[in-house]
Amino acid sequence: MIDRKYKETVHTAPNNYEYITITHDENRVRIYTLKNGLKVFLAQNFDAPRIQTFIPVRTGSNNDPADNTGLAHYLEHMMFKGTSRIGTQNWEKEKELLNQISALYEDHKAEQDPEKKKAIYKKIDEVSQEASQYAIANEYDKAISSLGATGTNAHTWFDETVYKNNIPNNELEKWLKIEKERFSEMTLRLFHTELESVYEEFNRAQDNDTRLVSYELMDALFPTHPNGQQTTLGKPEHLKNPSMKAIHKYFDEYYVPNNYAMVLVGDLDFEETIQLVDQYFGALPYKQLPQKTPVIERPITEIVERTVKSPTTPRVQLAWRTDSYGTKEAMLADVVANILSNRGEAGLLDLHINQTQKMLWAQAFSVGLKQYGYFSIVAVPKETQTLEEAKQMVLEEIELIKKGDFPDWMLPAIINDFKLQRMKGLETAEGLATTLYDSYIKGRTWEEELNEMDEYASFTKEDVIRFANTFFKDNYVVVNKEKGINDRLLRVENPGITPVKINRDAQSEFLKEILSDVTEDIKPEFINYQKEITIDEIKGKKLSFVRNKYNDIAQVHFIFPFGSDHDRDLGISTQLLQYLGTDNLSPEDLKKEFFKIGVSNDFKTSNDQLLISLSGLEENIEKGIDLLQHWMHDVKPDQNIYNQFVGTVLENRQAMKKDKNRIMTALTNYTKLGTTSRFTDVISKEELESSGPEVFTDRMKKLFKYPYQVFFYGKDFESFKGYIGQYMETESLQVPEPKQYPEPATGGNVYFTTYDMVQMEMSKIGKGNEVNPQHFGKINVFNEYFGRGLSSIVFQEMRESKSLAYSAYVSYAANAELKHPDYITTYIGTQPDKLMIAVDTLNELMNELPEVTIQFENARNAALKQIASTRVTRNNIFFNTLRLKKLNIYHDFRKDIYEQIQKLTFEDIRQFYETEIKSVQFNTAIIGKKENLNMEAVQKMGTFKEVDLKDIFGH
Predict the structure, then answer these.
(1) Average pLDDT over residues 121-146
(2) Which residues contact 471 (CB under 8 A, 6 or more apart)?
(3) Is the pLDDT of residue 3 over 80?
């Protein structure tokens, strides 16, 4: 038996609310249960005067009706559409029309004749037009953004639907008022336009390679359980035949206070907060939940093999079904996953396959669900290897665990890393709140969650060996992801809708109340960098220090004032270093030594900086520095390893050219910067093959002879200063001159790359004027008002009114460095038959900036509230100064932005638009199937050129 350190204790607060705490819980979480069954999790975090909020509902796609899959996810979308009080100008008239639409959808679902179904849908479209005159689009988002909320979103998964906001703490009561209204009733307005957005999301998922494999894997692992039989997005035939009646029934059954929780972590007062939550949510009625018969899967007794195809690089995925999250079996599966692959890259797969480059890549992981879970391994073979060979290689590593052929230090190191990651995860408001809601969804108490680390620590090597021999048999699923044409693509067709009215200028009485209810403003706090950062000098090196006020984790960063602009091959040199050892330590031993002491290392190369970072417990940081210096000074070139490395680099380059997202990134870069850019200026295949490892290792050996500065984030600066000097060399090398890359004018060019996909994606990129920090306040409000976010002009018009795209935005990006241009980017991801209509609509919006006074004021006030309630903390204090220095700014520039936004008028935004955006000329990037391209329309956009992958990747 494990002696449990963490135990529940019941208390009664001065205001007579009973709550539970857990002994020794450093986060001092309080758990309340209201009379209606609502669980309330409260914890304090004083990083900023804000509160991270989650409302996790214990239901997801696993509770979808069998004939209405995708319902939980669609309901999540509709939760943003308002209620009988939010989002309506005349509820009585709108309600009558919504009832008609609901009845029509039932007729549509029941009708089998395709022509009659079309006629019914046409009628739905007509009545929806009439209903839309009473609707106010995105009013929930207008209300919530008026509070200064950020991160407004939601997600649906197997057993959860989670609603998210991060709010200023002075707006807690208004937030509760809005959410109480939202969770009180379901109103399905603007239903068919949102349905079109869900179609688009489904179609986007068709182009997602990871989903393709995951769906096949889950179907095989869970042949009868909803985990594998009901995807979150649902089946296309169900999406085409929705039932508003079924959605209302689902909401009434599962969206009840005894089936969701309130998770609030931040700058809050316990007593005041629980009283407010009770005031707004306590009156919602308790309801008995539907009785569900648990689905029990039969054990898998053979190897189940499946095959899927897509254009990307081949890979194989194996999976074994586990017991549910929190069970001993699931925990041991998690331990085995970390023996194979861990954060320190010291697992068996890490060392035997990735480090030795026997394959392109392999990784193990485990997933714990509310019911069941799975242990999985993904392996990406080289071009010369088969999927079967890759499978056998990873199975051999599992055999080693069965034999106990892994070092004794590994298990304690993994447990220590678990504890370290838990410490990091719980130090932020969002991290703690996420862990709290996840434990609630999975039916775990906070006591069980906190005791989990001790349970992990109780496992012995013998336990792991015994588990591996019992668990890993020929009882797994294997999905072969081959390269080829995906013959399972299912596109949900556009049913054809008439754009609806969105009534931008209208406001419901509820929103007027929210906006007129003025709370006392949070006073912004701007940081004095000189006060917060301690500066010293040792051996001519600048030393900066910021105190860690939260835990015993420290970081040391070596910051070199040069990057790939100064030395094109600096990045690839640091990559090669990862595969090399020294005379004293093999590459594998180096990984082990770092993992043993719990210190991670990281190398980041940007165009103008190399950052080498170490992170771990402060007591071990010096050991980490010593190990790092030994590695870099004494790195041993190895021709065989180098030859393998070159092969891996070249194969990875080929893999990039098969990945849609990587291709779109490359195409967008080419569209923006043309043939000569940092992205395409890479070492060639010929140079790699003709070079030796010494060319790259010599760079690493000499690195600390160049100028650099050191930043230490921890607690004991004096101790750090006492030892860091012995690791510093005399500066003897000068920083090379950087290469200058052109930033050409944009305009009049359309670049296209073909890819086998359901959707079409288009991005326009325009070069603006040189960056001007005096515009930053205007840029902030412009993006919020016009181009991004749920209540922006673009989102409302493109998605809410016309359902032209699931994803569409316009973004003005200020350059990070003086004397360089800003860029304006537009993006549309949609069905091919809607692309050109979407382009025309976006062009119309951008021809003349629409003026919606209410929306502008909302965007301006939201920006002010966000700045006022945000605080610069932790290592951001230091890294902000590096970013600001590139703009020749040496104070907290948020003060200037705040003051500019305070005085900002719509006329200022209009003037900014006229001078900085309207005259910008755009190049266009398009990816998709060429056969789906409307060439006549495309040619109106500019000179068309189909570019090949070598053009856009540079190799």
Answers:
(1) 95
(2) 320, 322, 329, 332, 333, 336, 375
(3) no
> What's the length of the chain?
955
| Cα 504 to chain centroid, rounded | 30
Structure tokens at 835: 């692309």
Task: Please name which of 184, 107, 171, 106 lies closest in space to residue 144, comparing C-alpha atoms.
Answer: 171
For residues 513 and 173, give the distance between their C-alpha atoms in angstroms, rounded to a whole number.
13
Q: What's the CA gap between 833 and 212, in Å, rounded?
A: 24
What secondary structure letter does DSSP report for 244? H
Q: What is the mean pLDDT of residues 156-175?
A: 98
With CA atoms as reference, report the closest residue to 893 among 531, 530, 533, 526: 526
Q: Using CA atoms, how far apart are residues 601 and 597, in angstroms rounded to an integer?
A: 12
Cα-Cα-Cα-Cα dihedral sign, residues 692, 348, 333, 418: negative
Helix, coil or strand: residue 228: helix
Question: CA angle, corner 753, sides to 847 and 793, nearest 5?
Answer: 25
Rounded CA-CA distance 646/639 in Å is: 10
Instruction: Specify burial of residue 275 (Cβ count, 10 A radius: 0-12, 13-18, 19+).
Output: middle
Mean pLDDT of 371-399: 97
Q: What is the mean pLDDT of residues 272-298?
A: 97
| Contact in structure between 60 and 284 (CB atoms under 8 Å) | no
Q: Which helix (H) or strand (E) holds 666?
A: helix 660-673
Q: Please tell me whether residue 900 adopts helix, strand or coil conformation.
A: helix
Task: Report how far residue 630's alpha carbon sits from residue 633's, in angstroms, rounded to the nearest whole number.
Answer: 5
Average pLDDT for 498-515: 92
Task: Report the percentage of the chain scoring pLDDT > 90.
Answer: 90
Cα(195)–Cα(102) distance, integer angstroms? 13
Let me know: does 36 contact 284? Beta carbons within 8 Å: yes
| Each residue's pLDDT tens digit, 541-573 | 999 999 999 999 999 999 999 999 999 999 999
Residue 940: is its pLDDT beyond 90? no
Compute the CA torsion angle 205, 211, 217, 218 (nearest 10 deg): -70
Cα 2 to Cα 454: distance, rounded to the nearest angstrom: 8
Supply φ then ψ for residue 524, to 5 degrees: -65, 145
- Here the tokens at position 761 are 């994606």
**Higher-scoring residue by pLDDT: 889, 196:** 889
Angle in degrees, CA 357, 363, 364, rounded to 5: 145
Determine the Cα angle at 294 with ends 244 and 299, to 5°: 125
Q: 566-602 burial string, b = 16+ CB within 10 Å, else e? A: bbebbbbbbbbbbbbbbeebebbebbbbbbbbbbbbe
Distance CA 744, CA 21 (A): 61
Residues 6 or more apart from 648 whose CB is under 8 A from it?
357, 360, 382
Strand order in the sheet with 534-538: 534-538, 541-547, 709-714, 553-560, 610-617, 600-605
Q: Is the pLDDT of residue 919 over 70?
A: yes
Residue 1 has pLDDT above 60, yes or no: no
Residue 265 CA: distances (Å) to CA of 155, 192, 913: 19, 36, 39
How many Å is the Cα radius of gyration of the chain?
A: 29
d(CA 286, CA 306): 45
SS3 of residue 614 by DSSP: strand
Distance set, CA 700 to CA 408, 427, 573, 632 (Å): 33, 35, 7, 6
Interior/surface letters 400-439, b for 16+ CB within 10 angstroms, e for the rest:
ebbeeebeeebbebbbbbbbbebbeebbbbbbbbbbbbbb
Nearest to 335 by CA among 471, 213, 133: 471
Helix (H, G, I), strand (E, B) or coil at 589: helix
DSSP track, 767-820:
EEEEP-GGGHHHHHHHIIIIISSTTSHHHIIIIIIT---SEEEEEEE--SSTTS
**Sign of the four-CA dihedral 425, 428, 432, 437:** negative
